[in-house]
Amino acid sequence: MDLVQAVTTKAELLRVTRDHPAVEFDQAAQVRALVLDDGPSWAAVAVKLTRTHGSTLDVVGSDTATAARLVSDPALARLLAEVRPDGVTVDRALAPDLLPRLGLEEGRAARWEWMITRTPPPPTRQDHRVVVLDEDRADELTTFIDAVSPRADARPFAWPGQEWVGVRADDGTLAAVGCRMPSVGDYPLLAGIATHPANRGQGLGAAVTAELTRRGLAEAGVCTLEMYSTNATARRIYRRLGYGETREWTSTAFA
């Protein structure tokens, strides 16, 4: 029997990937995926529709050899020709081998991390300054994000389910902001966390993250966030707030 199979539900994908958290928390209930389940070894590729990066092909696996078998299978070539995804996201440990097989260069890819917590964060010294920012502040938020964090995936109130919070400086202008929104899997995802350069080092980003995390945990018992791997300061803050489980990814666009 051909070991490479197509699956169409998250439940099937979770079974093959041994309950991989990226599948559980960041995939829709209905999926389009190919899997290879070979005893203790497994691999999966799944198409995901994102709000900001178009369609992506997510690749995970238990080991490089098994993932390479799946990526090299003719079934994937047929899927790529039919779906024509905009980009690919690969478990970073697999990227050096898999990206060339897909005709892509690792050197041009973005490296980022996906972090998970199920534990309430400790209090921060700036918690009392965090306020909710309603949709009538969308223009103000957009101006802030464009100036301070233009690479942020979260666009203020561009789609339903967003909740923004922030801290204002003494003059009333925004000093730090952040967003909680539903992931593709409909779990809490934090994004757009940014602090104005003039207000950094005061713990404002930590306070914003902590408040959004508490709200996410109250909703679903789990909260996730994404960060670029070059941001060591953010990583230290997130780990201090309880984001102890990390998955490292490499993403790049198809030509």
Would you mind describing this structure in some detail?
By secondary structure, the chain is of the alpha+beta class. It folds into 2 domains: 4-108; 117-253, Aminopeptidase. It is built from 8 helices and 12 strands. It has helices spanning 10-16, 21-26, 64-71, 74-83, 95-101, 138-148, 204-220, 232-240; strands spanning 4-9, 30-38, 41-49, 55-61, 87-91, 110-117, 131-133, 163-168, 174-182, 188-195, 223-228, 245-253. The protein has a 12-stranded mixed sheet with strand order 1-2-3-4-5-12-6-11-10-9-8-7, with helices on both faces. A hairpin with a 5-residue loop joins strand 9 (174-182) and strand 10 (188-195). The longest helix has 17 residues, at 204-220. The radius of gyration is 19 Å and the shape is elongated. The protein starts with a strand and ends with a strand. It comes from Janibacter alkaliphilus. Pfam families: Acetyltransf_1. Residues 128-255 form the N-acetyltransferase domain. Keywords: Transferase. GO terms for molecular function: acyltransferase activity, transferring groups other than amino-acyl groups.
